[in-house]
Design brief:
Layout lengths: L1 E6 L5 H13 L3 E6 L3 H8 L4 E4 L6 H6 L5 E4 L9 H6 L3 E4 L5 H16 L15 E5 L3 H12 L3 E5 L5 H6 L3 E3 L2 H7 L2 E4 L13 H5 L6 E4 L8 H10 L4 E4 L6 H8 L3 E3 L9 H21 L9
Parallel strand pairs: 1-2, 1-3, 3-4, 4-5, 6-7, 6-9, 7-8, 9-10, 10-11, 11-12
Helix pairs in contact: 1-12, 5-6
The structure holds 3-phosphoglyceric acid.
Length: about 300
Amino acid sequence: MKILVFTEKPFAAAAVKAIENAINAAGADLELVERGTREDLLKAVETADGLIVRSDKIDAEVMDHAKNLKVIVRAGAGYDNIDLAAATAHGICVMNTPGQNSNAVAELVFGMVIMMCRNQYNGTSGSELKEKTLGIYAFGQVGRNVARIAKGFGMKVSALDVFVKDEVIEAEGVRPLHAPEELFSENQYVSLHIPATPQTRGSIGYDLVMKMPKNGVLINTARKEVIDEEGLIKALREREDIRYVSDIKPDRADEFEKEFAARVFFTPKKMGAQTAEANFNAGVAAAEQSIAYLRDGWNKYQVNK
Ligand code: 3PG
């Protein structure tokens, strides 16, 4: 039995060791391909029973090459990089590892927020987070960690998630909201945690951003695809008080950076889950879930049911 780990962003060394141990303990073999080419992937996947990836694109062509593949585990939360319909058609189970890297992403939210409200440490006077309003868009694992940390800063926290009951949000000491318009108009800080789906792609743009209170800061550690970049550029032009931080460069990064320099910040590549801890937790969970599926058909986190 072979489990292929194919990642453009390699796991930390300790995580790779632990992944290998988990796979070997089940009597299976690990094939590790880091920063491989498309050709490397198509070749290595031919004989794999399980495949572990991060944001790496796995489409129908990859599955066509995989003669034995039964399970793909996305070591992380978002699975918009995997063609679920093709996986179902190929009889392949796709799982993610919910919660394993969420604290890392939530901490980065505040890393970027503080940098922005201290004016990118340029020596000028900034502002504090205490008693400021924060709206969390999607109250999943990352959103809940963001709420926990925000309360430590003394922020007033609210959240919008149509799939989560008000009582669940309230139980975390967070005020539930019911419409995006409310989220944007009532919060100086808005943190996005929605997945990239046909419904959410391009859904955050001019109208919503223009509703933000004075000195609004939009934080995106979700996916760049959820932003309508043209609409956001227009809003930033009309509202000189608004700032935008994103964990990954937008498609129009040059335009944003040229026109709004001090009001935007983008990580060079997606960094949210890039911590030793998140790598370890998500990587080991992915290895264990792959084994559990291959051995016992365990599919608790299957996303293409
Ligand atoms: C996720 O969806 O889990 C995060 O965006 C992290 O993605 P990564 O594993 O590619 O860093």
